Amino acid sequence: MSNAPKILIAAPQSDVKNYCFLDWAMNINKFSYPKDKLDVLLVDNSDTQENIKIIEKLGMTAKYIPKNGRGIIETLAECHQICLDYAKDNGYDYLFHLETDVFPKHDILFNLLSFKKPITCGLYYIFDGAYREPMLRLIEKKNNGYMRAYGIKLQESLIRGQLMKVFSGALGCTLIASNVFKHIKFRFVEGENQHPDTWFAQDMYEKNIPIYVDTKSLCEHRSKSWGTFKLNFN
After folding, report:
1. Which of 196, 173, 186, 179 is nearest to 125 (CA)?
2. In this prediction, what percent of the chain has a pLDDT beyond 90?
3. φ, ψ for residue 112 (rounded to 5)?
4. Fewer CB within 10 Å, N- or C-terminus of the chain?
5. What crossing angle do the helices spanning 72-89 and 196-206 adopt, rounded to 10°?
6. Are 26 and 102 in contact (CB under 8 A)?
7. Whole-angstrom Cα distance, residue 55 to residue 67?
8. Running DSSP on this structure, what letter comes out for residue 15?
9. Which one, of 10, 26, 31, 16, lies nearest residue 223 by Cα?
10. Count of CB atoms situated within 10 Å of the CB of 198
11. Which residues pair with 168 in a beta bridge?
């Protein structure tokens, strides 16, 4: 398929996810997408540079970003932005942001591309036990100027295998078209305990760039070290 879009698979990485990284690498190697139109970049923030040797041995491009005393949220914001900038600077048609503990089916790229939307996510669950819920956020109407996103844990009947327009989806499995790269800035906000995916969704909402979730593209999420909500969160 010489006319297939050129796609970069990219995400932050760390040795804390090595419990499933080799399986992840094998899974993306089985994607039913032309291999000459697909590249991989992982931006590693492990404590040392040893982990990028593992990534490079698998034929993937790796960049190392030290924490330099920063918290994980601030470090992740830089890692996300490096992924986006690499896709933009190297002429990719799409960035497929795929976290290294998320396992979609092998036809995921063709499925998400088929909708021809600027931002299309797969679906997976987050947290464990009683906190487990689909990574999909809707949004309430403004109330005294305040707008609040909420999950649909108690409304899973809404998930019926259709494409849904949402406030935010799972950044860990998101296909982003190149025509919106210039509108995205992954960032950390001092004093706010919010991850870059939150600001990403808010920015897209304010810029009227819709986010969709394909609820039939359900992925396995091996979030082994997440534990209880707000405990051991990586």
Report:
1. 173
2. 67
3. -70, -35
4. N
5. 50
6. no
7. 19
8. G
9. 16
10. 17
11. 137
